[in-house]
Design brief:
93 residues; alpha+beta; 2 helices; 4 strands; 33% strand; globular
């Protein structure tokens, strides 16, 4: 029988500078994902970025979202992360 008293799911936010080509300027990305293994979070984030075609990544910040974001694109990304998917937001700076 399902219960509504489940602990809230933890969504992690990873902020990174990434390069698809080391000669280019970096782009900033935000990764939103759920992962119970805090020790493996860094490795998982780096693997996801590598799978997306980024040659190099520098993780700048790792945190936990404590509430649903109010604005896009983070709101949609957060909802995707809650379903077990990984959400990647790339900023064109």
């Amino acid at each position: 029988m399902p219960t509504d008293n489940l602990e809230p799911k933890t969504v992690h936010l990873v902020v990174a500078d990434v390069w698809k080509d080391k000669e280019e300027d970096p782009r900033q990305v935000h990764l939103l994902l759920m992962n119970d293994d805090a020790d493996g979070l860094v490795q998982l984030a780096l693997q996801i970025l590598a799978n997306e075609g980024y040659e190099e990544a520098e993780l700048l910040e790792i945190g936990t979202l404590t509430e649903e974001p109010e604005e896009e694109p983070h709101l949609s990304a957060y909802k995707n992360a809650l379903t077990g998917q990984v959400a990647l937001i790339e900023f064109n700076e």
